[in-house]
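Supplementary Methods S3. Complex input for the manganese (II) ion-bound model.
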Amino acid sequence: MIEMTSAFLERRRAATAATWNLDSGVVLVVAGDEIPVPGRGDRAYPFRAHSEYLYLADRERPGGVLAYAPADGWVEFVVPVTAEELLWTGLEGDHEGVPEGTRPLGELEAWVGDRSVRRLGAAADADVELRDGLIRVRRPKDDVELARMRIAAEATRAGFEELVPLIASGRTERELQVALEAAFLRNGGDFLAFETIVAAGDHAAVMHFSPTARKLRDGDLLLVDAGAEHRGYASDVTRTYAVGGTFTAEQALVHDTVRRAGETAIAACRPGTEWHDVHRAAALVVAEGLVELGVLRGSPETLVESGAATLFFPHGVGHPVGLGVRDTGAASDEAREPVPGLPRIRVDIALQPRQAWTVEPGIYIVPPLLARERGRDDVDWDRLDELDGFGGVRLEQNVLITDDGCELLTAAVPL
Ligand SMILES: [Mn+2]
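Predicted complex, serialized as structure tokens:
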């Protein structure tokens, strides 16, 4: 395990300052504050430091400010720990006051003095240029980040291993969720990377479905999209199972198509490849499978270009993952024209070594989405009616781009 050391933080901070290239002013990178739950007395939502602050300070405490000025370098201001806090929350290893090498938050105002201030982080007036620099610095994951992602992936593997034997008719989505999440936390996870999705039957066609008390039935598809987090770093895995253990012929065809779409997309992941081309590689396999299933008519190329494949694969093939389940977004100069036929792709950039991405093709029968397109002549509507209640299949891996291809970070969770 590669431990966090000051050398890692120094490198991150130096790389960030280099992209900013400022000769004056002060930049404040803020952790953010605890958010109270309205009407619930002293309850607050679990605190998560802003990703940019966590990356540069590696600290989860609310209220902190990391300040940068070209003449002074980086100075960290932290809310001092109080005796009251030690009584109620008993921060492990902590003592009253501030950690060595940091200054109490109360000194920030005087330190900033009369300099002109640019604020970055949770504040609304975030400076686009500063953030763009930080996005580029954060994209290639360093060894500490990768070590944390591997721990998150291992906890996630343990969770899915616990889950699989529990999949049976009569169990509820909720029971499976609880077992999965408990195993994440027993095996190195310290938080959930996002709200667990456990979706059986027609629920599997809802992209972000919250588990319910509904019971699984033999013959249902069961889609599980979940991930553990470790020290802010996420894993994001989706698998789709047959309740009862055996796919119907149609389910098997769709599952196999999605599996091959994922493998084809992963084979395309290497430095220099544009993300929309990874999407297209997956979409062509999806379109071919939809023709075989009998719901689309035409050549895969035409069906991808016309947007017909998007009716059944309505989301992008993946997103940056790492510090949080959605790592950096697009920089302001990375806005791309939408590619005809493809869904909106939020981060559409060329892959580079040490970037981490999810690869998550899917095929879903989504009645409300299809209802809007009723009458299109590249869709066999009678065949679709036979597939009412089918649900959907998604299979999601996380990849790390290497110098000449990619490494699968989530290979230990069986497809
Ligand atoms: Mn996911």
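The CA atoms of residues 306 and 341 lie 5 Å apart. The first helix runs from residue 6 to 20.
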